Each structure stands twice: as structure tokens, then as C-alpha cells.
Amino acid sequence: xxxxxxxxxxxxxxxxxxxxxxxxxxxxxxxxxxxxxxxxxxxxxxxxxxxxxxxxxxxxxxxxxxxxxxxxxxxxxxxxxxxxxxxxxxxxxxxxxxxxxxxxxxxxxxxxxxxxxxxxxxxxxxxxxxxxxxxxxxxxxxxxxxxxxxxxxxxxxxxxxxxxxxxxxxxxxxxxxxxxxxxxxxxxxxxxxxxxxxxxxxxxxxxxxxxxxxxxxxxxxxxxxxxxxxxxxxxxxxxxxxxxxxxxxxxxxxxxxxxxxxxxxxxxxxxxxxxxxxxxxxxxx
Length: 285
Prior knowledge:
The chain is an alpha+beta fold. It has helices spanning 25-36, 85-98, 152-158, 182-191, 246-259; strands at residues 14-22, 39-43, 47-51, 57-63, 74-82, 104-107, 111-117, 123-129, 136-137, 143-144, 148-149, 171-178, 196-201, 205-209, 217-220, 236-244, 264-266, 269-273, 279-284. Strands 11-6-7-8-5-12-15-14-13 form a nine-stranded mixed sheet, with helices on one face. An eight-stranded mixed sheet has the order 2-3-4-1-16-19-18-17. Strands 9-10 form a two-stranded antiparallel ribbon. α2 crosses α3 (152-158).
């Protein structure tokens, strides 16, 4: 597929939340509350629902049927977008004080980001965007990213208040997936969901988004080429959740029908799987 033909997005769909299957959902829910400042919004027989104190759902935890299989398609990380650098500094200080192990801290040119894993090996990114004026936005609309060490001292110095809970305005900024075929992923998320291409990292990864974002979706081949999703119900990603306005929801449903793409429809929701076999839910915002 010609990169130039998929630069622009055709919908305003965005990431909303993530569902995970966990071997111990209750223990994992406690981790997210104690170490990440999430609020338990609802506890059902089948799930723990977590998010911000203001009620925004970010994460749903379900009981897994089996342990995660190696080198499968699925979650690389989900990414929590904080409102400001000061918020990032506050949570960084909190994580360091609690002795939570970080797996990375990077400057991506358009954002500054922390990386860690939860107790069941799910990757987490916590980041704050830089001012758009410093982004490397190219003439064709692509937004180039870099991977450089984060100015941790500067981020810590920006903190104004002690961290207690995820701040109001925190959203699920993006989801990053292990896939088996970048061309198939690009075609599906562009032609069906309407995402635009934002950046290509060699032959190994790509980033897609709608609107002004640098990405709502990352996809990579770092687990291998032609990999498939793990068994249904296995530990790890259960589904990514996306939200669209009513017009875009109808447009996406029409595209699925035109392509003969299988999906299940419920009131204000479509459930389907992408070419790598990972499940996604599209909801009316």
C-alpha cells in the first residue's frame, strides 16, 4: 500500500479504554489503584472496572482462562495520556518513592513517556505531550518521532503537587500492538476505522491516528512476522475499546458491510477482530 494514499484520516475515532484478561484480576486491580492512582469504579461478578475519580473508564479486568503464550499478537502496551508535564513529574516521583520498577523513560520529540509492566506482564506507558509547536510535523502530515533519554530531572522539577490519583483529564491516549503483518494492519485500520498514517519506523513499526494526535495506534513486528493472537480468554489483551461519534460509527459499520467483514452488533457497539486476531470494540461516544 502506498504510504502517500493513507496519510489522512477519514473519521474522528479515538482510543477509549482497554480490557485485559488476568490470572488474578483482584490483585491486578489493587496494583492499579495503589501504584497508578486509578479508582475502582465498579466491581461486577465478571470484571473490575477502573478509571479516574471523575468516572472515566480506562481499564477493565476479567478472569483469564489460561496463561499468556509467548510471541503472539496482542498488547505491547497501553498508554495513559496525562494533561501536563507537571502531572507526569508528580507520578514519576510517586513511582520512584514506592519503588515501582520502570522499564524505560523516553523523549519522543512530541511527548515524554515513562514505561513499566504490571505484575502480569502487561506493558504500560504513561506520558504527557509536548506543545505541538515543537513537534516534527512534515509537509505530508506525518509526525516524526524519536527515542531519546527523557530529561527525568526536568520532569521531576515540573511537579507542583504530590500525586494522589490520576488527574482529571487523563485519557487512554493510544494502544500499541504486536501484529504479524504491517501492511494488513495499515489497510484495516485505515480503510475500516479511518485512521491516518502518522509515522513509519523502518520496516518494523507504524503509528496511526485521527485528528491532531501523533498516534492512537502503534503496531510493530517485534514479536515476529505472521504471528497470530493467543487462545481466546488467555492472559493479556482481551479487547481495545474505541469511541466514535454516531456519524463515524455508521460509516464504519457501512464499510464492514461493504467488505463483508464479520462483526457482532449490540446497541451502540460493534465487536470484531483485526487481521492479527486481536479483538476491538467500537462504541458510540
